[in-house]
Aldehyde oxidase/xanthine dehydrogenase a/b hammerhead domain-containing protein (Candidatus Marsarchaeota G2 archaeon ECH_B_3), 764 residues
Amino acid sequence: MVKVVKTRVEFEGRFRDEYTVVEGEPLEGWSPKSGLKIVGRPHPRVDGAAKVTGSAKYTHDVYLPGMVYGKFLRSPYAHAKITHIDASEAEGLPGVLGVYTYKNAATLGFGGAEKVFKQEVTYQGDVVALVLAQDESVAEDALELIRVEYEPLRPLVDPEEIMGLDSSKDRIVGPKLYERGDLEKGFAEADVIVEESFKTQAALHNCMETHGSVAHWEGDNLVVHTSTQSVFNVRSALSEELGIPQSKIRVVSEFMGGGFGSKFGAGEYTVVAAAAARLLGRPVRIVLDRVEENLATGNRSQTVQWVKIGAKRDGRITAIHLKGLVNVGEDGWVADLGGPAKMMYHCPNVKVELYGVKTNLVSSTAFRAPGYVEGDFALESAVDELARRLNMDPLELRLLNYATRDPVTNSEYSSKALREAYLKGAELIGWRSEPRVVRDGAKIRAKGVAGAIWWGGGGPPAYAEVKVNADGGVTVLTATQDIGTGTRTALAQIAAEELGLPFSSVRVVLGDTITELRSPGSGGSQTLASMGPAVRAAAHDAKNQLLEIASQVYDVAKERLTIREGSIFRSDGSVLCSVGELLGNLGDFSVTGRGAREPNQEGYMVNTFAAQFAEVEVDTETGTLRVLRLVSVHDSGMVVNPLTFTSQVEGGVIMGMGYALWEGRLVDGESGVVINPNLNDYLVARCSDVGEITPTYVEPEDPHTNSLGVKGIGEPPIIGVAPAIANALREAIGVRLRELPFTPERVYSAIKGINPRPTTAKYL
Ligand code: MOS
């Protein structure tokens, strides 16, 4: 039965009210105590072999007969006006099928062409021209034959500089304000006040698979293979830009090499590929290279933050004030740095003021727990300083100010086991049993802790179908993407568990709009918490139908039958038949179960939590910092697959270490040119950089989230890693570093009390 319900939908802490259509009745919730056989156990990825043998087909692997290659010419300047552009030589090169600039882009035939091809380029990497050619090397040669003259204009890239300029007020967005209680009163009540300022750098996603699409037309139907976190977002964007109905567009993302927040939209490469394919009547492939990727697809925002925290002598926090600047690039969004300041602690008086600053850099975009990674670094570093001022154990201070209800809405949490996570982590890292600091010649080892809070409760809309074939094989159909997290495997576990059929009999088909099963974007840590319950509901529906069939074939009341381990049992425990036998006797048919994600229970705040403990070793002679151990303890509700849980946490922690120690976009302050848009100069963590990581979880029962009791795990592991390392470093060297990343030069300079070399390159 179809029901329309109104529900609050949350994505990364932003809420909207939506009507949604659900089907079926709510199922009894699963919990770690439900005695599940397949869910909650480690299952290797169902697509692991396909990935390591190279047979898994990513967008980058799609090559079609007669395919045309598209390449963009991009601006070398951060801000410039094109005074002259001549593409005739490029057009004349044999093998070139078209060159497009702002002058003729309209002929490509899509809506936003003038927004993609501009005469005034406003960041390095902005699109100047497009070449379409019969192969990649011809396209690259043609790019070099396009004659462009630029009139360079003054770029503005530094938000702090812009805030001081009277002429740049139109570049400032906000303030975005949040306030509760009485801040002044809170600080007046405080015995101790800590005031600190922090800077965080822009970080680049560096997905293994760069952004890219391959588009082709079958008659008037468009098919697009693309590396995306949301096939439906891409489809609606294409429909709008190309002016064709959604039903004529198929978007496919079968395998995908990461997104981390940078692949929610269609991107100009997709729209241009589709438009060009229509124009030429041939497939068109546009795949960005690493430098383009790092210049033109967005980044985690650079921030400048001031934090002020007041507390009573006994440690109770009375007031928190956060002011932040967010470098949003050309036209990005102001990520919510204030999340942790608002939500982490039981504190009656809180104020957050955020300003976005527009600069001549690419628009910033979502990046794994956007805002919270940056804001948690500032807040949790400041809280650590507060503990020092109070002469308290920083873990005790956190537990003392623990929020038992959501401080923003005063709602109950659907579940919260952060306290247990802190205690488990403390045990594992030896917080109390081992010395906090150990000196060994020029090397010092020390430990630090930080907490993390995030979202990831998921919600509707999410729809799935579960089909059981006459041979007992199961196909789960959805359209959500597996961006590398193990979604296929987890959904197969859920379907098998609910059906009572073997895990190995389930195949999951996803990442394809042709299913027309509305599915969430793979982001906001919501995929499993949104999609999993829909798959369970669909499996439940299919199971009901199987039992109905058995009931009719064997003339037994349906209520007296259950399915376990592939067999149908009577209520007295005897076997009626195997599912294979039942279906085998019925000829060719299949059962289709349908399932929809139920709305979240009203009145509860669904958050995920983590406790991060770091042990670092500092070489005081070189400033080199190594993370020896990182214990990452999560409350993400019930864990469906401990193996994929572990790989999510390891990935997030490693990304967090990269952010803390090495990563950072370096921009020349004068020219606005990015100095390190490649993996040679932009340092992501390598295997040899990473010490021992201990991913683990506490598993609270959560009857209020969804029928699985699961919350997300995609983003929580990266939050809190940088401040845990920062706090360990502070413990080791006695000096607080307030600017990320903690490069050897910065650490060395801090130890020696000297200023790092002045340079024109800035982390922006
Ligand atoms: Mo994310 S930043 O929701 O992929």
Notes: The chain is about 25% helix and 30% strand. The chain has three domains: 2-59+458-596, 62-154+211-287, 302-457+603-763. Residues 302-457+603-763 form a domain with the Aldehyde Oxidoreductase; domain 4 fold (CATH 3.30.365.10).
